[in-house]
C-alpha cells in the first residue's frame, strides 16, 4: 500500500511539473491571432472592386461608406435613389453603374487599400484591366480617401478627391 501511495505522489509531482509556462513565442503568436478587419466589395456588372484590409491591429477607428449600383439594359432603368440612368449621362446599355467609397480611419497596425476596374464585356479569357491602385501602409497613421469608379467614363471625366490626412 505504501508503494502505491508513493507511486501516486510521484506521478502527481511529475504531472504538475510538466505543466510549466508556455514558450514566449507561442504566447506572442496567440496574443496577435486573428486581429484583422477586411472589407471587399465587387460589382460584377460594372467591373469595379474595392478592398480595405487592416491586419496586426493594435488600434482601429474606422468609418467606411460604400455605394455600388448597376443599371440594367432597359433605357428607363433607375438607381436605388430613383434617378434615371440616362439623366446622369450614363449609358444604361450593357451594365452601366459604379462604385463609390468614402474611407476614414485611424490605425495602429497595417493597412491595405486597393481598387481595380476591368471591362466586364469580354466573354472569353481574362477581362481587360482598365485601372488599378494598391496602397500598403504600416505604422501609426490616419486615412481619409474618396474613391469613385464609374463604368463608361474616361480619364479626367471623373474627379477623385484626395482628402488631407490629419
How far apart the termini lie comes to 76 Å
Main β-sheet, in a few words? 4 strands, antiparallel
Q: Can you tell me the residue ranges where pLDDT is under 50 for at least 5 consecutive residues?
A: 73-93, 161-166
Number of strands: 4
The number of helices is 2
What does this 3D model show about the protein?
The chain has 166 residues and is of the alpha+beta class. It has a domain at 35-150. Helix content is 15%, strand content 46%. It has a four-stranded antiparallel β-sheet, with no helix packed on it. The longest helix has 17 residues, at 2-18. 17% of the residues are buried. The model is unreliable at 73-93 and 161-166 (pLDDT under 50).
Task: Pick out its properties.
4 strands, 166 residues, single chain, elongated, alpha+beta
List the helices and strands and how they pair.
Layout (H helix, E strand, L loop, with lengths): L1 H17 L5 H8 L4 E8 L4 E24 L24 E23 L10 E22 L16
Antiparallel strand pairs: 1-2, 2-3, 3-4
What's the gist of this structure?
With about 170 residues, this protein is an alpha+beta fold.
Amino acid at each position: 500500500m505504501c508503494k502505491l501511495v508513493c507511486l501516486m505522489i510521484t506521478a502527481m509531482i511529475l504531472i504538475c511539473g510538466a505543466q510549466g509556462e508556455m514558450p514566449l513565442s507561442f504566447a506572442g503568436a496567440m496574443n496577435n491571432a486573428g486581429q484583422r478587419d477586411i472589407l471587399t466589395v465587387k460589382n460584377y456588372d460594372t467591373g469595379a472592386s474595392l478592398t480595405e484590409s487592416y491586419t496586426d491591429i493594435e488600434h482601429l477607428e474606422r468609418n467606411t461608406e460604400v455605394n455600388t449600383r448597376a443599371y440594367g439594359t432597359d433605357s428607363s432603368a433607375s438607381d436605388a435613389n430613383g434617378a434615371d440612368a440616362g439623366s446622369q449621362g450614363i449609358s444604361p446599355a450593357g451594365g452601366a453603374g459604379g462604385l463609390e467609397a468614402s474611407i476614414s480611419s485611424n490605425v495602429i497596425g497595417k493597412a491595405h487599400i486597393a481598387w481595380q476596374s476591368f471591362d466586364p464585356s469580354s466573354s472569353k479569357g481574362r477581362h481587360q484591366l482598365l485601372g488599378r491602385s494598391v496602397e500598403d501602409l504600416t505604422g501609426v497613421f490616419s486615412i481619409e480617401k474618396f474613391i469613385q469608379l464609374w463604368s463608361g467614363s474616361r480619364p479626367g471625366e471623373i474627379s477623385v478627391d484626395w482628402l488631407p490626412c490629419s
